[in-house]
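Milestone 3.1: sequence recovery, worked example.
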């Protein structure tokens, strides 16, 4: 296929290349077109250097495509509390790949599982704790941060214990099942003088970051509407899903578990908190999975700027998509929040082009871990602090209230209900 386009003619490809060059975003490519390599043939005038070594010698330090890990003495030690599917398949490997972090502790109610994981990562039994002995972390100088990855209702207790032991904390989303519990965790962080981060990994996922930069730079034009749909099957045969069917533990259904990606993501991309909410929830009749929690949620958001968004969540299908609809172009993340394989496509009247950031999707895990480490080491602010987690739990409470009342509800900038 030949490109006969005159060099000064604007095209989708040039639009994206110029846009991302101006934003300082590294891209592999903006389309699927393969790059041609150059071959230097003999007799072209190139001359060999007179200083070529006669044999193997040490060479100068090369340029690095990625930053090297910090010295082990500078890395922060992380203990992971909760050794389920996500922890073992994504969080702990993310710590192992991070520049600024190293795995130094495990907290689990299953000693056999903890010992197996410890052996896999070269940890001794002295690095293993159970939930009843977390207070002993106070005497463990090898642990600087505790990453809490447990069922939602357990978050507050473990987070507070970690702060009482003098550790920093990263907590999985949702932060807790009530605003009061979130506030308790924030208060504990302040009392301990330690940092609290909520693990909103999409804020560090390369395709989501690229979409955010496009939006902030105005490259999509006027964006007045967005959509976000997040669905996944709930499988009662999987242990990791069984507690999600129990409201006292999970706090809610698909909205709390996966709809929070839609809610938090749109707020982050727009850069503002909604001022009005209209919601409804429902479940398939006679489905025992949804005796206590909802299967589906549908949410409309209105923002102070005049923007609007429509969100859905569900527990029966598979879909994770975000659309930012702009006057110049629409950014589509599909999938938007997978652990691997996210994609960003820019749609314009001329067609569609895929954006390829210079990192893969799984960089989200190492980047969020390194972000908290850097904030601790350098005293900088956290992108996803506990206050953000509190705001989102307040908004979830407002969504359920709107669904109960069957009408719009007004919310304050901190996410709390303005009316009943």
């Amino acid at each position: 296929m030949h490109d006969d386009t005159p060099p000064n003619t604007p095209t989708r490809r040039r639009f994206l290349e110029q846009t991302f060059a101006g934003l300082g975003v590294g891209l592999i490519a903006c389309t699927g077109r393969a790059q041609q390599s150059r071959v230097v043939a003999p007799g072209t005038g190139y001359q060999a250097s007179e200083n070529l070594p006669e044999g193997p010698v040490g060479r100068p330090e090369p340029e690095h495509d990625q930053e090297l890990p910090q010295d082990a003495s500078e890395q922060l030690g992380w203990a992971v509390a909760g050794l389920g599917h996500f922890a073992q398949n994504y969080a702990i490997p993310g710590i192992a790949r991070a520049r600024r972090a190293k795995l130094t502790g495990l907290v689990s109610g299953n000693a056999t599982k903890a010992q197996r994981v410890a052996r896999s990562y070269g940890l001794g039994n002295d690095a293993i704790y159970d939930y009843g002995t977390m207070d002993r972390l106070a005497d463990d100088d090898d642990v600087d941060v505790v990453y809490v990855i447990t069922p939602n209702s357990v978050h507050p207790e473990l987070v507070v214990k970690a702060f009482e032991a003098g550790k920093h904390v990263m907590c999985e989303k949702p932060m807790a099942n009530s605003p009061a519990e979130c506030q308790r965790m924030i208060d504990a962080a302040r009392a301990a003088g330690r940092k609290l981060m909520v693990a909103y990994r999409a804020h560090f996922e390369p395709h989501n970051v690229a979409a955010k930069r496009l939006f902030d730079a105005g490259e999509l034009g006027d964006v007045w509407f967005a959509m976000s749909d997040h669905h996944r099957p709930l499988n009662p045969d999987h242990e990791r899903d069984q507690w999600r069917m129990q409201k006292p533990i999970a706090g809610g259904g698909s909205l709390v578990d996966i709809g929070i990606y839609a809610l938090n993501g749109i707020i982050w991309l727009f850069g503002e908190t909604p001022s009005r909410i209209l919601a409804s929830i429902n479940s398939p009749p006679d489905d025992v999975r949804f005796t206590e929690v909802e299967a589906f949620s549908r949410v409309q958001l209105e923002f102070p700027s005049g923007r609007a968004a429509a969100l859905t969540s569900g527990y029966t299908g598979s879909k994770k998509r975000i659309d930012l609809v702009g006057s110049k172009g629409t950014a589509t993340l599909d999938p938007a929040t997978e652990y691997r394989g996210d994609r960003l496509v820019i749609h314009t009247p001329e067609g569609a082009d895929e954006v390829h950031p210079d990192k893969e999707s799984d960089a989200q895990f190492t980047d969020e871990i390194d972000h908290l480490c850097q904030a601790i080491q350098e005293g900088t602010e956290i992108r996803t602090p506990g206050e953000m987690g509190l705001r989102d739990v307040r908004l979830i409470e407002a969504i359920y209230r709107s669904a109960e009342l069957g009408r719009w509800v007004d919310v304050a900038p901190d996410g709390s209900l303005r009316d009943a």
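The chain is about 30% helix and 20% strand. The longest strand covers residues 223-231.
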